[in-house]
Amino acid sequence: MCLTGVDYFSTLGYQPAIAAAAAGALAPIATLILVAVTLFGALPVYKRVARESPHGEGSIAMLEKLLPRWKGKIFVLALLGFAATSFTITMTLSAADATAHLIENPFAPSWLHGQEVPVTLVFLLLLAVVFLRGFREAIGIAVVIVAVFLALNLVVIVAAAGQVAIEPQPIDDWWAVLTAQHSNPLAMIGIALLVFPRLALGLSGFETGVVVMPQIKDGPFDTEERPEGRIAGTQKLLTLAALIMSGFLIASSFVTTLLIPASEFEEGGEAQGRALAYLAHEYLGEGFGTLYDISTIAILWFAGASAMTGLLNLVPRYLPRYGMAPAWSRATRPMVLVFTAVAAVVTVAFKADVDAQGGAYATGVLVLITSASVAVILSARRRGRYRAVVGFGLVSLILVWTTLANVWDRPDGAGIAALFILGIVVVSFASRARRAFELRAATITLDEEALAFLRVEAGREITLIAHEPERLSAAAYRRKLQHTCSVSHLTPSDDPLFIEVIVDDSSEFETHLQVRGITRHGFRILEVHSSNVPNTIAAVMLHIRDITGLMPHVYFRWTEGDPLANLFKFLVIGEGEIAPVTREVLREAEPDVSRRPWVHVG
């Protein structure tokens, strides 16, 4: 919970000030709306996501299952772009806000002013060092930081509430301003609804709460397919975090609105972006205020740990499997360096300006939560739970409106997210093209019949004829055999094996190959389902060589059509220019020409 909370709870460092600046006297009412959306919208959605994806895949994996093939892959890439926006901006914005708290402290040395970018980069570097040391160290640090931060916030809020109890005049002043500006209660609620999207940063943390599921202990009767103990633990985590945050948000919004002059929330004011810190210095002295600043700086700095956890779980889970990232991207430490470098570039580009990054942060958070609600609706509809469809549909409408309102109000956020999406898509497809000639077989298994076919071939050359699985008549097999014999040294008496690759989903990259031996019209056939043809044939040939010690030969006929068009077909649908691509895959996989299976084409 604390690892999730360093992102979620850290928004207390700036959320009350954002609410007061955006809504003025209506800030407490707008915050109540935010809490209602949290408890009755986001929380039920992510409790359902935890049940549907108990291994930490999150809502993106749910949508991937519901939207298969290239359509699903492209949709996932777009969501990964928004996720990367949310998590990366979480790292950079939180580090930049930690820098602002450090520089604004009255005891901070004067030479720090104007050094926002270097100080923020130091915070990001320190975060990377923690993750390079190991994940458990990050969790331990998170527990200490969150516990201290929440305790200090409780002290500040209680002290501020005590001040209001002693001198209740601020309540009368606030109510007078509120009723003077909005005499109709419905008008108050309506305007609060309009400004609510600006408070959406207070919804961050839910996606990370699901991502950390693999760290949650299983129950005694949990299975891999149905880890009920882990699901229940995650739902408790999400509920407890939401309740704690809701209480702090409501209380902090009231005391900051009542006790801090509105002018202090404006540009250059002492409470801008640090309302609770202002109260800590004002009512508990500079010593306690400095202690509060240190705690706030620590949790804002370490909020990047929650974001880093999300990135380390999401990116290696999808891109390498899609063939859209190098194999080393599955390792933690190299990816920590990559994400830190990206965060450093973003920090320099935005000059460590908190306000400039707020739109992108809110956009990423809202799109992820909205996509989660849509995934839950589709899942409920598939299961026939129509009451759930209606309930989550209402939540989705609220979230869609909030997202669109945020994009309309701060279009720069959508622009930044679009750049992240474009970057991920370009890099992903470039990587996929670069890795096109890899074997792509995660495992290869031959059934008993296929092994029996190979045992018959023992002591002689293993001959395979590539055949299109769409042509299954006896005449088609005879024509293919006659053609192969006419352009090679083979004769029908050699009784070669046919190999057929059935392409199921060409958008997949790595596949587990199951080779079946079947007999059709008297011809022996090795049949395998895969995501592409040439890489699969090459992988099966190398596997046959390894288990039999014999050198396989495969026979093709030339593919008709434009070579470039056929190459494009191979990259997209896994077919096309089969013969030369098979040979190229074999050449890259086996550099020793004397051990390389033979490819014949005519």
Record field, number of beta strands: 7
Radius of gyration in whole Å, from Cα?
A: 30 Å
Strand fraction equals: 5-15%
Largest sheet: 7 strands, mixed
Euclidean distance between termini CA atoms: 64 Å
Mean pLDDT: 82
Which percent range fits the helix content? 55-70%
Shape: elongated
Read across the widest sheet, the strand sequence of neighbours is: 1-4-5-3-2-6-7
Number of helices: 21
Describe this structure in words.
By secondary structure, the protein is an alpha/beta fold. Helices cover 66% and strands 7% of the residues. The protein has a seven-stranded mixed β-sheet with strand order 1-4-5-3-2-6-7, with helices on both faces. Helix 3 (27-52) runs antiparallel to helix 11 and helix 3 (27-52) packs across helix 14 (354-382).
